[in-house]
C-alpha cells in the first residue's frame, strides 16, 4: 500500500448532505484571461449508503 493511500484510508472528515455529484471543467492553463468553469455532467444520488456500509438495513 502506498503512503498516500494509507493516510486516506484512515481519514474521517465531516459529513454533509449531498443531493448530486457535479462534474465541472475549466479553462485553467489555456492562456491569459479569467478562469471560467462550465458544467459537464451531473448525477442525482439515489438511496445513500454510508461509508463502510453495504446498504443492508438502511
Question: What does the secondary structure layout of this molecule look like, with pairings?
Answer:
Elements: H1 3-9, E1 20-26, E2 37-44
Antiparallel strand pairs: 1-2
Query: What is the averaged pLDDT score?
Result: 75
Mind describing the biggest β-sheet? 2 strands, antiparallel
What shape does the CA trace take? flat
Helical content (DSSP H or I, runs of 4+): 10-25%
What's this model, at a glance?
The protein has 58 residues and is an alpha+beta fold. Helix content is 12%, strand content 26%. It has one helix and two strands; from the N terminus they run αββ.
List keywords for this structure.
58 residues; alpha+beta; 2 strands; flat
Please, could you describe this protein's structure?
- The protein is an alpha+beta fold and 58 residues long.
- Helix content is 12%, strand content 26%.
- The chain has a two-stranded antiparallel ribbon.
- The longest helix has 7 residues, at 3-9.
- The protein is flat.
Amino acid at each position: 500500500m502506498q503512503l498516500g493511500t494509507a493516510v486516506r484510508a484512515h481519514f474521517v472528515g465531516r459529513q454533509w448532505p449531498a443531493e448530486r455529484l457535479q462534474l465541472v471543467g475549466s479553462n485553467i492553463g489555456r492562456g491569459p484571461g479569467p478562469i471560467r468553469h462550465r458544467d459537464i455532467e451531473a448525477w442525482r444520488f439515489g438511496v445513500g449508503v454510508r461509508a463502510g456500509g453495504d446498504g443492508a438495513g438502511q
